[in-house]
Amino acid sequence: MDEGLERTVAANKAVIGIVMGSASDMSVMSKATEVLIDLGIRYELKVSSAHRLPELTAEYAKTARDRGIEVIIAGAGMAAHLAGAIAANTTLPVVGVPIKSGELNGIDALLSTVQMPSGIPVATVAINGAANGAFLAASILSIKYPEIKEGLDAYRLKTKNILLEKSEEMEK
Q: pTM of the predicted model, to two decimals?
């Protein structure tokens, strides 16, 4: 296979896995899918609970690399062990998205996601920060895929120009 084609993200396979603890998390995790669609990055979606479906969650993580997944974004609320359970079963980068829910409004999810033992890292974004989870996953992939780097650069330039325009309008 041609080296350029093999390294092209648009080679019709998902390179990012998005996993959420329940279908109700889609309202938050859809922000990640929007970013990935805008950047032209293929992804797969899965609902799997670290507590209710532990074997399925472990199997998803163990087989992700074989399916071509290179980064996993995991979003969950409450005790939020999903990202950690995935990270325990793969050496792929895992980005955790704590989801606001329950009596503690996501603080429990944040702490469960960020407080991982040494050797089982989970990069963690803000509560309900699924968009930044996608941007972080894209940044990781931009090391390998120049077209993702170009997409990220274009996004940042676009947001910079929007802010400059608004600033100029306010000064008038």
A: 0.92
Q: Which domain holds residue 153?
A: 3-171
3-state percent breakdown (helix, strand, coil) of the chain, nearest 5: 50, 15, 35
Task: Give the containing element (helix H, strand E) for 63.
Answer: helix 54-64
CATH number for the domain harbouring residue 89 = 3.40.50.1970
In tens digits, the chain (172 residues) has pLDDT values of 334 434 455 457 999 999 999 999 999 999 999 999 999 999 999 999 999 999 999 999 999 999 999 999 999 999 889 999 999 999 999 999 999 999 999 999 999 999 999 999 999 999 999 999 999 999 999 999 999 999 999 999 999 999 999 888 888 7
